[in-house]
Every structure is written in C-alpha cells, then in structure tokens.
Design brief:
242 residues, alpha/beta, 6 helices, binds NADP nicotinamide-adenine-dinucleotide phosphate
Length: 242
C-alpha cells in the first residue's frame, strides 16, 4: 500500500491540476477526478509522463453514483486516503429575474451537494488516516464569493457560502478524529475559469495557482493540534472579485 494518497476533484484544469501535481510530486498517489474525458486524459498523461503515481476517474461530481464510483476506484487502487480536495466547481452568471432552474441546479449539485457526498464516501478512510498520523486533510475550494455575496453570481455565492459553513461543521464533527477541513476562498485566480475577464483584469494581476498550492503545502505541514478553517486570498487592494 502507498504511504500517502489523495483524491482531487476538478483535477483536469486550473487549481485542481496544480494541487494534484504538487500532491503527487510530494509522494501522494493521486486519483484525478473530472467530468470531460479528453481534458482529464491530457492531464493524466502529463502527470504520468513526469513519473507521478496517478490514476484518473471520469465522473460528474454532481451525480451521486459517480461520486460513489470515484471514491470506490480510489479505495481499490490505493487503499487509503490522507488528503481529499473537493475542488470541482463552476459559476453561471445571471440576474435573479432570469434565473434558470437547470443552471441553478448544476451549480448547487456540482459546487455544494457533491462535497457532503465525498465526505460520506471517504470518512472511513480519512478516519483511519487521522488515527494514524492526526493530519488527515480535506480542502474545500470555496471562493471570495463565499465571504462576500456577488451580484449576478448569487447562486454561485450561495454555494460557496454553503461550503464555508459546511467546512466549519466538519471541523466540529471530525476534528477530534484527526480530520481537518479547510475552505479556500480566493478572488480571481489565473485559470481557464477566468479567461472571460482577462481583457479587463490581466492574468498576472490575479492570484496564481502557485499561491493556492503554497497554501495546501502549508496546511499539510501543520502539527496535529492546529487547524486552519479557512484561507481568504484577495487582491492587494481588497477582497472584491474585480
Ligand atoms: N479561478 C477563479 O478565479 C476562482 C476563484 C474562486 C474559486 N474558484 C473555484 O476553484 C475551483 C476550480 O476552478 P478553476 O479556476 O481551477 O477552474 P477550471 O480551470 O475551469 O477547472 C474546473 C475543474 O472542475 C471540473 N468540473 C467542473 N464541473 C464538474 C463536474 N460536474 N464534475 C467533475 N468535475 C467538474 C472541470 O472539469 P470538466 O471541464 O471536465 O468539467 C475542471 O477540472 C472551482 O470550485 C471554482 O469555483 C475559482
């Protein structure tokens, strides 16, 4: 069995891919989860080409059966789970008067509902890791929109506020088992998700995926008695998205 293992959702792009690469480079066997097969395959091949221990599971985290299948594939391959990164997410902007129920449900299911499902399926493995070293870690990617409600991104904001609250509850419920949870709350990060805004906000002025990676590395280095429940990443001039 491997010494350390991790699951990263949304691992085919942006923040998830950068965090998965760091975890694999630092000795974790990593299950990469994302929805679109082609993108996931490209990420998987790139990590494998660098000699990293990864497997990929194409899954829609908004689908309960897919979540069960992804965690089960991880358990079968690696037999343990030290780090769970619930990162898959998307935002669909719309004024509230034009709210589309299907688009709302996609955001609720992908960004928020998926996270308790991943905890439920993973908690036995996380508990075993927590008992072994007191530092099982769950990182939940929220957003600055989970700290400050954003106009026209109201559903996205609601999902991200939900993640922050759920993360707090998980620390109260699982902290005593050596399972620590952290919500990451960044403003604009230079990833494909922010391509639409890059003519107005230059990518080099945004938070970098390396900043998110540095924060996860820091979380992994903490002693068993220390939990960081959330980290807010903002532009030097303030916390707004722009
Ligand atoms: N970039 C920012 O400015 C920013 C700021 C704050 C928070 N965030 C959050 O950071 C997280 C990662 O975003 P990113 O910026 O790295 O975006 P990204 O480059 O677009 O990556 C998003 C990842 O999530 C996956 N994904 C989306 N829906 C999925 C689903 N239903 N099932 C499985 N995988 C799914 C995508 O895979 P597929 O393409 O296969 O669907 C992709 O791997 C998101 O939760 C986002 O809300 C981003």
């Amino acid at each position: 069995m491997t010494d350390r293992a991790a699951i990263v959702t949304g691992a085919s792009s942006g923040i998830g891919l950068a965090v998965a690469r760091m975890l694999a480079t630092e000795g974790h066997a990593v299950t990469l989860v994302a929805r679109r097969r082609e993108k996931l395959e490209a990420a998987y091949e790139a990590l494998r080409a660098d000699g990293l221990a990864v497997q990929r599971v194409a899954a829609d985290v908004g689908d309960e059966d897919d979540v069960v299948r992804a965690v089960s594939a991880h358990r079968d391959a690696y037999g343990r789970l030290d780090v769970l990164v619930n990162n898959a997410g998307l935002g669909i902007a719309a004024p509230i008067g034009e709210l589309n129920t299907k688009r709302m449900d996609i955001q609720l299911n992908t960004n928020l509902r998926s996270i308790p499902l991943f905890y439920r399926e993973s908690v036995a493995m996380l508990t075993a890791a927590g008992a072994e070293h007191g530092n099982a870690l769950v990182v939940n990617t929220a957003s600055i929109a989970g700290k400050q409600g954003q106009a026209w991104l109201s559903i996205y904001s609601a999902t991200k506020f939900g993640i922050v609250g759920f993360t707090e509850a998980m620390n109260k419920e699982l902290g005593g088992l050596g399972i620590k949870s952290t919500a990451l709350c960044p403003a604009w990060v230079d990833t494909p998700m922010t391509d639409f805004v890059k003519r107005r906000v230059p990518p080099e002025a945004m938070i970098q995926t390396s900043d998110i990676v540095a924060s996860v590395r820091m979380l992994l280095s903490l002693s068993p008695g220390c939990v960081v429940p959330e980290i807010v990443f903002q532009a030097p001039t303030g916390g707004a998205l722009t």
